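Example 3.2
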Amino acid sequence: MLHLPHHDGSALFVDQPNPSLGDVVTVRLRIPHSSASSAVWIRTVGDGEPLFVQAQVDFTDDIETWWYARLRIQNPVTHYRWRLTNPDRWVTQSGTLRYDPTDAGDYRLVAHRPPPDWASDAIFYQIFPDRFARSATAPAWQQFPDWSTPSGWQDPVIESTPGTLTQLYGGDFRGVEERLDHLTALGVNAIYSTPFFPGRSNHRYDATTFDHVDPLLGGDAALAQLVAALHARGIRFVGDLTTNHSGVTHDWFTRAQADATSEEAQFYSFLNHPHEYETWLGVESLPKFDHSSKGLTDRLFDAPDSVVRRYLCDPFDFDGWRIDVANMTGRSGGQDLNHQVGRQLRRTLHETSAEALLIAEHCHDASNDLVGDGWYSTMNYAGFTNAICSWLGSWFPLDHLEAPPRMRAQTGREVQQSLDAFAASISWRSRAANLNLLGSHDSVRFRSIVGDNASLHSIGTTLLMTFPGIPSVFQGDEFAMVGTHSHLSRSPLQWDQPHDQSTFNNHRNAIAARRESVALRRGGFRWVCVGDDHLTFLREHNDGVTLVHAARSTDTVDTEAIDASLLAAGYEAGHSTTSLLTGADVSLRDGLHIEGPSGAVVLQLK
């Protein structure tokens, strides 16, 4: 694969990854001599019309020739692809092709405002507040609301509804603050918390108000204090907001039902006032917002005292928002205001906190929504989670909220095809900002997917920390927690019980490798070699090159072919290097050695 021409949106190939309208951007293409062409052009599209610009040779060495061309950024999103002659080929994000492809796989430069720079170096940890930690000052059982099913911290999760949704363990934000040493030791530098507004469920996606923090979590003061403590340690905080719906007992909805002439009545899609209304997936307790209402958008986004603005400012000082079911927000039948909502949200973030991040929940192909002017990125289930879990696990649920249907284990080549297809459908900038994850509060635990196999868990963690995108660890995955259903995945963390130290160390080492390697955080991506049982790739940056080799089984891995591919690309097989996972000095002369039947290595090449 290193013998093919290559271009991506990283700094090695694009001198201005975040251009403005009117800028002239230099883009570069590397072509190994084994795949040489006599001439190179770049086809761009300006104002809807294809244009060709001839590329020039930048330099040539013993391995390859680098070509460059200059593109004027004429539109907010500039599509381009490379044209090679003798032999004739197109080079696109979909690969090197000998036929005329559609524009869907073109490279893209986006002139809209980019994600904050800190996101490129972020390593997220997701917290589900009710189940992370309970402080000594948390409310006693007697203070729990009447809708709840109080439970002791060691009680098992109730598996059937309604108990599974009403069961409260009483975790709170002071409990999170008391465990910050754990997060610091793990090495994460950003927190994403599921909702903190009062609700009538343990997940709190059915908010009763957006005006304050749930007193069960410690109220406004506890959240503000937690964020301040996180910031003091260099850790960012991102909140979770439902822009698609509220709870049925939300103060806006109760006023809407009580008075059809009220402003709040326009916030929702009533079919027959007051008891028939649009909902999230038919769940009556989650009435759906109508974003054609100016009053609604004012209160959520636009007004000076809007929900989004309030928590980005003092005393909370959030570093961004994750938007729940963003893929459904503003969409209902013939109405589609989704992109408008994304643009409104982004504008509010820019006006309020220039460094705020906006992440959309999206469980399938998000390419039509990542056009560059709305959501920065998505939770990357489709473009990362599904492929990696189906390669390392003996089973994988296609529906993250339920166990069936299940998908068969896939080969490494199938995984590569899936990853490449999703990557080709979006800009490099969106790919680099997508939130990669092996699991969340909505999915089966990764350890349950790979079974009682610490090595496969370690491989998954290594891939999570080495692929393009922002990695995110769900609370407890570092302890090898299990759960074969999303609700069972939300068991409380048992801090006083022995933990799987090996899995914790694997997480800590993989996180440290990412933090040490600028190439893993900001570099480009090239496949070296892929087989049924291994994935081998490079992350390349001006400040270094990192090699990642992951094998679910070493029986079928042809390490000699990998070494030959690296040698042909100019990476000498004999030079000494460093393992970023163990810190040990190693030599590539000995090949890509993995101890045991499976595992992963991460090597700093230069």
